[in-house]
Design a protein that fits this description.
Length: about 350
């Protein structure tokens, strides 16, 4: 089925999107100047921008549209390697929705006539409040490009559309019904394809986010395991040092059971550097000093124990004396008589 737009003169224009808004409108000749670095867009520096190439009829209806990506460098200049054959692709375009003058010629990622270029295009959204077709239609109807004034210098014809076979000798009503049915079917197919592709994009985005989170989780897990191993080695080394230090102190003091030293290990930290003792470091004077301090500590502990034992014995002795002391009857004096 040929579009009703095919025989009308059209103007070529390029519009750039940012979110749900058209932020730039220009004629195709101006767009070519951007591709040749005659001008730049600093606001688009280091961005991939959504753009669309449109062919506009004199009555401000859209005859064809191509939704493409355009990359800008750090200074806002268009990528010099960008070379999409927009005019040739428009000639190969399939049919899209009716935007006021019959089905438009449409090229997007879902409807790309050249599969190898598919990633250079994007699918317009048809969700309420974010319908790119309606946004595009509204922008064109504002006529900021003065379409009628440009028809004298910019005209093109749309071609290459595939005709739907028409039954010979079919009456006009049947032909119109067939055409409308074919248009409805194409619009529904496009809607299904666009929604499917949009869902695929969301799934891919969630998959990438999950993969990113999994990488971060694995990295944190690795760092935690590494830290745990470091602490484990550190504490094992400290435990070995303490054991060696206790054994050395026990040997210096002539104590047979090192467990006696371990009971007072916290207090023995004050007698010297146990790490040095465990590794055998330190000179003779230091070793003798540590031994003297350790002996003094143990003697102090023994003295404390003796004091406690003496105190216990004194208590027992007082109890014994109180129990065996004879009872003495107190002497009382009779009261004096008062004359």
């Amino acid at each position: 089925m040929n579009s009703a737009n095919d025989n009308l003169p059209t103007v070529e224009a390029v519009l750039l999107f940012k979110g749900a808004q058209v932020v730039e409108q220009m004629l195709y000749s101006e767009f070519e100047g951007i591709l040749d670095h005659v001008s730049n867009f600093p606001g688009y520096a280091d961005e991939r921008v959504k753009g669309c190439y449109v062919r506009v009829n004199p009555n401000l209806t859209i005859a064809g549209v191509i939704f493409f990506y355009l990359d800008f460098d750090d200074f806002g200049y268009a990528d010099r390697s960008w070379c999409l054959p927009l005019r040739r692709l428009m000639g190969q375009a399939g049919m899209g929705p009716d935007l006021g003058a019959g089905p438009v010629h449409l090229v997007c990622r879902t409807r790309c006539p050249q599969v190898e270029l598919r990633e250079e295009f994007w699918d317009p959204s048809i969700q309420p409040g974010m319908n790119h077709f309606q946004i595009l239609k509204s922008a064109i109807q504002q006529n900021k490009l003065n379409i009628n004034d440009q028809l004298a210098v910019s005209q093109a014809s749309l071609s290459g559309c595939i005709d739907i076979p028409v039954v010979v000798n079919e009456d006009e009503d049947a032909k119109n019904r067939r055409d409308k049915l074919a248009e409805v079917i194409k619009n529904q197919r496009f809607r299904i394809e666009a929604l499917t592709n949009e869902c695929d994009d969301k799934v891919n985005e969630l998959t990438r986010a999950r993969r990113h989170d999994q990488i971060q989780f694995n990295e944190k897990k690795r760092l935690f395991a590494q830290k745990f191993e470091q602490l484990k080695v550190k504490y094992l080394k400290q435990d070995e040092q303490m054991t060696n230090a206790v054994a050395l102190i026990a040997r210096l003091l002539g104590v047979d059971d090192p467990e006696v030293i371990k009971e007072h290990l916290e207090d023995l930290r004050a007698v010297g550097n146990l790490a040095d003792l465990s590794t055998g470091e330190g000179n003779t004077e230091q070793m003798e000093l540590i031994q003297t301090k350790a002996e003094n500590y143990l003697l102090t502990q023994q003295l404390v124990q003796l004091k406690r034992a003496c105190s216990v014995m004194n208590q027992k002795l007082r109890v014994y004396e109180e129990a065996n002391m004879p009872k003495v009857t107190p002497i009382t004096t009779p009261p004096k008589k008062v004359s």
